[in-house]
Amino acid sequence: MKLIGSSTSPYVRRSRLLLADTPFEFVDLNIYAEGRDALRKANPALKIPLLQDGEQTIYDSRIISRYISSKLGLPALSWDEENQITLVESVNDSLILLFQAGNRSGLDIRQDVLVFNLQHERIASTLSELERQVVAGKFASWNYPAICLLCMLDWTRFREVADLSPYPALLSFVEQAYQRADVQATSPR
């Protein structure tokens, strides 16, 4: 298997962690510079990660996780776990949009503009719910939803896109996850 993406992407990191005990090749691209052409050739959606396994190519991290889980015989996700991933992806997408708008495009993401306001609202609402779920023990097992949560939170800290200090359980979750060697090895830093 070959995983193509960027070492700083939270979506790519999920797949890397899911494959931590499986041999695979990782192709690290700078998708905003010289790696853009390679991405364009590999994925018409221009998204990372993508997984190539023989003749099979898969374009999306959530579908990649299903493929890997099926291939490795991992248990299927419950509906509650699917919902946890949806929450993580919602806040992750909003954070990435704000990062691209602010850090990559030079826009003031604090201005009173609908698209930015909606992202800030989603981030606050979703992080509060994820904090509640961590406190309730919903992310106690190291499984794909926990991997997704860790990748989003650590990317948020790495890119300094949002203040996580109001969410002590989420910060504690990250610190506990960093006890794992695979988490340390895939750090975006």
TrEMBL record:
<feature type="domain" description="GST N-terminal">
    <location>
        <begin position="1"/>
        <end position="76"/>
    </location>
</feature>
<protein>
    <submittedName>
        <fullName>Glutathione S-transferase</fullName>
    </submittedName>
</protein>
<dbReference type="InterPro" id="IPR036249">
    <property type="entry name" value="Thioredoxin-like_sf"/>
</dbReference>
<dbReference type="InterPro" id="IPR004045">
    <property type="entry name" value="Glutathione_S-Trfase_N"/>
</dbReference>
<dbReference type="Pfam" id="PF13417">
    <property type="entry name" value="GST_N_3"/>
</dbReference>
